[in-house]
Specification:
Elements lengths: L8 H5 L13 E8 L3 H12 L4 E5 L7 H4 L3 E2 L7 H8 L1 H12 L1 H11 L11 E4 L3 H16 L4 E4 L1 H8 L7 E4 L3 E2 L2 H14 L3 E4 L3 E7 L2 E6 L2 E10 L17 E10 L15 E4 L5 E5 L5 E6 L9 H13 L8 E11 L6 E6 L2 E5 L6 H15 L11 E2 L7 H19 L2
Parallel strand pairs: 1-2, 1-11, 2-8, 4-13, 11-18, 17-19
Antiparallel strand pairs: 3-7, 4-6, 5-6, 9-10, 10-11, 12-15, 12-16, 13-14, 14-15, 17-18
Helix pairs in contact: 2-9, 2-11, 4-5, 6-11
The chain binds flavin-adenine dinucleotide (FAD).
Length: 423
């Protein structure tokens, strides 16, 4: 079957329906949210729940950005191990962030339960798999600290990882029982449905093209009319355009691609038998999971290149053969990629861009729980909360040095990796 780099699998397999909600009149609201992903819709859901008038403006469709295209690993914490987060922010602030993001998957799962979101949730954890002995050392350090903090993680030996993954290619793993997997588009559409039911207005196919400060708030000019709001949350993340000058230069955009097989039925019974999703410790990270229909979905950093029998599908076939020699040849259904906002220190940011204008950004490829949690934090702030209670200290925008060069370098390196590993 033909692969495609324009349509992503979750768009077709999500049980929650897409909401097509055009904007037909000018709007006056308390909070305008730009971007219909986890961050924007969580902001809207929680602010509407507190009685505020909220309006979400999404340029394309709900989940068009990272929220509809990701791997669906609902992970705890950040990229960095807890001790490194504390070293970065200081003991007290760092510990608070570790705690709130450690509890993040649980919060996501509670929203899924509360709003009956149909997103194929599994609650059996995720596995960070060691691609080498040095990767296993890194996982041991992470495990030691999480265990000290009382988190339900388990360091897996090579043999134990082999049983959990169904592959002898890894050197061990770190199983985190707090985590799980979702159909990412199902979750983001479910958040939109819940936010709408709570009273938020949501408009899709509306690009915000200008933000103008006014005496009593902000005027947002869009291609469908104007929105006047007391406060604005820019929830555009890696899909940030030139709406706020300089914001796009505050992170390095990196692509991550995935290739999905057709449903494989009993052939994959021994692969990830408990349905944990995995990602590995390699510098050019690899991800792997099974979906509810028993497709295998394998991914890595870079763009989806070529259609049917294109480079990415050759890469995927090669990797599946390496990991699961017993599987035999498989047919692929879909390939796609999405954009990740990377920061040089792997730490996300919450910027105050101007009075009443905030943006949580730079999730470094870990945005399901953080986006949900930071969206709630935005709603708390804008309903009378204090900046000091945000999970991150509020900062101004800093340009990422040599952003264009770095992005170009990574893109070339990831493409070369696909070529080498598809032979
Ligand atoms: C391929 C891939 C795999 C990933 N895997 C994982 C994973 O397994 N686990 C995990 O936790 N995280 C993962 N992530 C990261 C996660 O998906 C993102 O961090 C998260 O979705 C960001 O959510 P968001 O709401 O902040 O932004 P997004 O979901 O990116 O939404 C931003 C939205 O803003 C809209 N927009 C932009 N400009 C405008 C404008 N001017 N006017 C109106 N709308 C605008 C865009 O159309 C877009 O829909 C992955 C990301 C990618 C790309």
């Amino acid at each position: 079957m033909a692969g495609s780099s324009t349509l992503f699998l979750w768009d077709e397999t999500a049980a929650e329906p897409d909401l097509n909600l055009p904007m037909t009149a000018d709007v006056v609201t308390d909070i305008a949210v730009v971007g219909g992903g986890y961050t924007g819709l969580s902001t809207a859901l929680h602010a509407a729940g507190k009685g505020l008038d909220v309006c979400v403006l999404e340029a394309k469709q709900i989940g068009f950005g990272g929220s509809g295209r990701n791997v669906g690993l609902v992970n705890a914490g950040l990229w960095l191990p807890p001790q490194d987060v504390r070293a970065h922010f200081g003991e007290e602030r760092g510990a608070k962030l570790v705690q709130v993001l450690g509890d993040g998957p649980d919060y996501v799962m509670s929203l899924i339960e509360q709003h009956q979101i149909r997103c194929e949730l599994t609650r059996t954890g995720t596995i960070h798999a060691a691609h080498s002995t040095s990767g296993f050392k890194d996982l041991s350090r992470r495990a030691e600290e999480w265990l000290r903090l009382g988190a339900p993680v388990r360091l897996l030996s090579k043999q134990q990882a082999c049983e959990k993954i169904g592959s002898s290619a890894f050197y061990g793993g770190l199983l985190d029982a707090r985590a799980g997997t979702i159909n990412p588009m199902g979750y983001v559409r479910g958040l939109a449905r819940a936010a709408k039911a709570a009273g938020a207005r949501i408009h899709t196919g509306v690009s915000v093209v200008r933000l103008l400060r006014q005496a009593d708030g902000w005027l947002l000019e869009t291609d469908c009319g104007t929105v006047h709001a007391k406060s604005v949350v820019l929830a555009t993340n890696a899909y940030t355009d030139d709406l706020w000058p300089g914001l796009r230069s505050s992170f390095v955009p990196i692509n991550f691609f995935q290739v999905a097989t057709v449903p494989l039925g009993a052939r994959v019974a021994g692969i990830l038998p408990d349905r944990q999703g995995i990602w590995d410790t390699g510098k050019i990270m690899l991800s792997l999971r099974r979906d509810a229909a028993d497709r295998l979905i394998i991914g890595s950093m870079g763009s989806a290149i070529g259609g049917a029998r294109g480079l990415s599908e050759r890469w995927a076939a090669r990797q599946l053969k390496r990991l699961f020699p017993q599987l035999g040849p498989v047919e692929f259904e879909k390939s796609w990629h999405g954009q990740i906002a990377m920061t040089s220190d792997h730490i996300p940011r919450i910027h105050r861009l101007a009075e009443g204008l905030y943006t949580p950004i730079g999730y470094n490829g870990r945005g399901i729980a953080p986006g949900t949690v930071f969206g709630k934090a935005m709603a708390d702030l804008l309903t009378g909360g204090d900046e000091a209670d945000l999970p991150l200290p509020v900062t101004g925008v800093k340009q990422e040095l040599m952003r264009g060069l770095k992005a170009g370098f990574y893109q070339a390196a990831f493409a070369a990796n696909q070529v080498v590993k598809s032979i």
